[in-house]
Design a protein that fits this description.
Elements lengths: L7 E6 L7 H13 L5 E6 L1 H4 L6 H18 L7 E4 L5 H10 L4 H5 L2 H7 L8 H4 L1 H11 L4 E3 L5 H18 L11 E3 L34 H10 L11 H5 L2 H14 L3 H8 L4 H27 L2 H30 L3
Parallel strand pairs: 1-2, 2-3, 4-5
Helix pairs in contact: 3-14, 4-8, 4-15, 8-9, 10-14, 12-13, 12-14
Bound molecules: tryptophanyl-5'AMP.
C-alpha cells in the first residue's frame, strides 16, 4: 500500500537528555514495530523541550542525539518520516489557532502541568501551560489516526480529541469532520516503566538519581550494576499476578522483563515464581544487555556521522512539510484566515 493510503501514526520525543528504558519500551520500540503498517511520522519535539529552560548548546546536541537514538533503535528514515518539530513552522501556527479553541478549564485539569510546575506555579512558563495545545497541533497537523505513546500521555491524547472535536464543531461545515479524532496506541506491557529506586514513581529523565533509570547509553557493566542495586522487597518472587500487583518493585522488574522478552506478565510470573530476586536480576540484566547493547553501539557510531543525521532530518523535514501544508492551509481557511 502506498504511504498516502495507509492510516497515519504520529509521535514525538523531547530532546531533553539521554533517553531511557521507559522511552524505549513504552514508545520507541513500538514506533519501530509499526512503521510498515502505517504512514509513520516521528518527530523530535524541540519546541516542547523549551517549555522548561534548556542550555542552548546542549539542546542542539540533544536534538541530534534523539535522531541518532531513533535510527539506532531501528526507525528507518526511508520508511518513516523523521524530522525536527521547529523546522516545520506549521506546528507553531496551528498551535496558535488551537490556543484559541482549547478552554482554560481543560488545561487546568492537566496533571502533567501540575507535576512539572510544582509549587511555584506562578513562575512556570506560559509555554509549559499550553504545552498540551502544541501537542494537539503536532498530532492534528498530520491528520494522525493513531499515536503510539507511554501511559503518561493518555491525558494529553484526551485533550487532543477534545480540541479536535471542538474545532470540528465550531468551524467545520455540517457533514465534514476535518480533524480525525486520534486514538492512543498504548502497549499492554511496560507502558509505564517505574523508577528502579521506587516502584511507585515513574522512570524519568528528570529524576536526580542516575541509579533510578537505565539509559540507552549505559554500558553493560553500568546496566548490570543498576539492575543489581534496584530496590526489591524481602520476599521471593510472587506466584500469582494478584500478589504481584501488591508488590510495586517486583511488578516493575517483572514488567520490564516481560516487555523486553515480548511476553505477558503472567508468563513471566509462571517462569520465575518462588525464585530469589538475585537470580531473576541476573537474568534480567542479561536480557537487557542483549537487547540494548546493539542499540548503544549503533548510537555511538551514528553520533559521529553528523552529516548523515543532518541529511536524514532534512529529507524527513521535506516529507513532513508536504503532509502538513494542506492541513494547515485548510485549517486557516476554515477559521476564516487568509
Ligand atoms: P517524552 O519525551 O517525555 O517521552 C517520550 C515517550 O516516552 C514515553 N515514556 C515512557 N513510557 C513508559 N514508561 C516511562 N517511564 C516513560 N517515560 C516516558 C512517553 O509516554 C512518550 O511516549 N509530550 C510528549 C512528547 C510529545 C508527543 C507529541 C508525543 C510532544 N508532541 C505528539 C506524541 C504525540 C513527551 O513529553 O514525551
Amino acid at each position: 500500500m502506498a504511504a498516502s493510503e495507509q492510516p497515519r501514526v504520529f509521535s514525538g520525543v523531547q530532546p531533553t537528555g539521554s533517553l531511557h528504558l521507559g522511552n524505549y519500551l513504552g514508545a520507541i520500540r513500538n514506533f519501530v514495530d509499526i512503521q510498515d503498517d502505517y504512514d509513520a511520522v516521528y518527530c523530535i519535539v524541540d519546541l516542547h523541550a523549551i517549555t522548561v529552560w534548556q542550555d542552548p548548546v546542549e539542546l542542539k546536541q540533544n536534538i541530534l542525539d534523539v535522531a541518532a537514538a531513533y535510527l539506532a533503535c531501528g526507525i528507518d528514515p526511508k520508511r518513516s518520516t523523521v524530522f525536527v518539530q521547529s523546522e516545520i513552522s506549521g506546528h507553531a501556527e496551528l498551535a496558535w489557532i488551537l490556543n484559541c479553541v482549547a478552554r482554560i478549564g481543560w488545561l487546568n485539569r492537566m496533571t502533567q502541568f501540575k507535576e512539572k510546575a510544582g509549587k511555584n506555579r506562578e513562575n512556570a512558563s506560559v509555554g509549559l501551560y499550553v504545552y498540551p495545545n502544541l501537542m494537539a497541533s503536532d498530532i492534528l497537523l498530520y491528520h494522525a489516526n493513531f499515536v503510539p505513546v507511554g501511559d503518561d500521555q493518555k491525558q494529553h491524547l484526551e485533550i487532543t480529541r477534545d480540541i479536535a472535536q471542538r474545532f470540528n464543531n465550531d468551524f467545520t461545515p455540517e457533514g465534514e469532520e476535518f480533524f480525525p479524532l486520534p486514538e492512543p496506541l498504548i502497549l499492554p506491557v511496560a507502558s509505564r516503566v517505574m523508577s528502579l529506586r521506587d516502584g511507585q514513581k515513574k522512570m524519568s529523565k528528570s529524576d536526580p538519581s542516575d541509579m533510578s533509570r537505565i539509559d540507552l547509553i549505559d554500558d553493560p557493566d553500568l546496566l548490570r550494576k543498576k539492575i543489581g542495586k534496584a530496590k526489591t522487597d524481602p520476599l521471593p518472587l510472587p506466584d500469582s499476578r494478584e500478589e504481584l500487583e501488591t508488590r510495586p518493585e517486583a511488578l516493575n522488574l517483572m514488567s520490564i522483563y516481560s516487555g523486553v522478552s515480548r511476553q505477558s506478565v503472567e508468563q513471566t510470573v509462571a517462569e520465575h515464581a518462588g525464585r530469589q530476586f538475585s537470580d531473576f536480576k541476573s537474568k534480567l540484566a542479561d536480557l537487557l544487555i542483549s537487547e540494548l547493547e546493539p542499540i548503544r553501539k549503533e548510537f555511538i557510531r551514528l553520533k559521529t556521522d553528523q552529516a548523515f543525521l543532518d541529511q536524514c532530518l532534512r529529507e524527513g523535514g521535506d516529507k513532513a512539510a508536504e503532509r502538513a501544508a494542506p492541513v494547515l492551509g485548510r485549517a486557516k481557511e476554515l477559521v476564516g484566515l487568509r
